[in-house]
Amino acid sequence: MAEDTEVRRAVIAASPELQERERTKLASVTAALRDGLEERGLPAENAALMAQVGSAVLQNAFSRWIDGGGQRTFRSCVDAVVESLRGELDN
What we know:
Blueprint: H1 2-13, H2 16-39, H3 44-67, H4 74-90
Helix pairs in contact: 2-3, 3-4
């Protein structure tokens, strides 16, 4: 699985058009997260921030998972990114 994803990532990296499509998809996911958080009662500004942070965490975790050849679970990569973020915010 990670190997297929690594190939996909290389194809996207070689194509400006596919890179733009990835950015558009990420923006759509972030907007959906924001909307969902607003529906759950978060103020709009906080919902936007949390959606952006959540998207960044998922992107970073995905990169770590692929770079590691899928040896770690995706969940453990998410946990590591969240822990890194917490550590930096605490400093």
